[in-house]
Amino acid sequence: MSNCVFCKIVRGEIPCKKVYEDESIFAFHDINPIAPVHFMVVPKQHIDSLAEADASHAEVLGKLFAKVGELARGQGLTDGFRTIINTGRVGQQEVYHLHVHILGGPDRLGPMVVK
Ligand code: AMP
């Protein structure tokens, strides 16, 4: 998607603090972190949101979720973390390129639903 901000990050057209990249997924720090560690993992392939994901996306989403624990440990999150996928209007999704937030830090996080 030519106008999608996360597609532009994946293509290297917008700078980011990259965490990881392989042939199918890309991870980078959130520009506006809400926890001591806050990064996101996205499929390189554009998918608007989790609401649009279907069986054709199973392989890339499987690879994405299979990598989250390793990436979180790599960022120092060895005692747990939180994953969030905001979806659509009700989920207050801001960027319509499916992404998984990974949040953590040394202390326990706050309540689950705050936005
Ligand atoms: P969401 O509400 O789940 O759609 O979250 C979108 C997230 O993308 C927000 O936490 C933003 O801070 C983050 N974000 C937006 N633009 C950028 C960018 N250029 N680089 C890194 N993070 C971004």
Question: Outline of this structure?
Answer:
By secondary structure, this protein is an alpha+beta fold.
Could you explain how this protein is built, in words?
The chain is about 20% helix and about 20% strand. With about 120 residues, the protein is α+β, with helices and mostly antiparallel strands. A hairpin with a 7-residue loop joins strand 2 and strand 3. The protein starts with a helix and ends in an 11-residue tail after the last strand. The relative contact order is 0.22. Adenosine monophosphate binds near residues 14, 30, 31 and 95.
How are the SSEs placed, and which strands pair?
Layout: H1 5-10, E1 18-21, E2 25-29, E3 37-43, H2 58-74, E4 82-84, E5 100-104
Antiparallel strand pairs: 1-2, 2-3, 3-5, 4-5
Features:
single chain; 115 residues; alpha+beta; HIT family, subunit A; 5-stranded antiparallel β-sheet; 21% strand; binds adenosine monophosphate
Rg over alpha carbons: 14 Å
Distinct small-molecule ligands in the complex: adenosine monophosphate
Q: Average pLDDT across residues?
A: 96
Helices and strands, in order, run as: HEEEHEE
Output the CATH topology.
HIT family, subunit A
Spatial strand order of the main sheet: 1-2-3-5-4
CATH class: Alpha Beta
Count of β-strands = 5
- Please give the count of helices: 2
- CATH homologous superfamily caption: HIT-like
Based on Cα principal axes, name the global outline: globular
CATH architecture group name: 2-Layer Sandwich
Beginning-to-end CA distance, first to last residue? 27 Å
Class by helix and strand content? alpha+beta
Q: Tell me what portion of residues adopts beta-strand conformation.
A: 15-25%
Summarize the biggest pleated sheet. 5 strands, antiparallel
Share of helical residues: 10-25%
Low-pLDDT runs: none
Q: Kindly give the count of domains.
A: 1
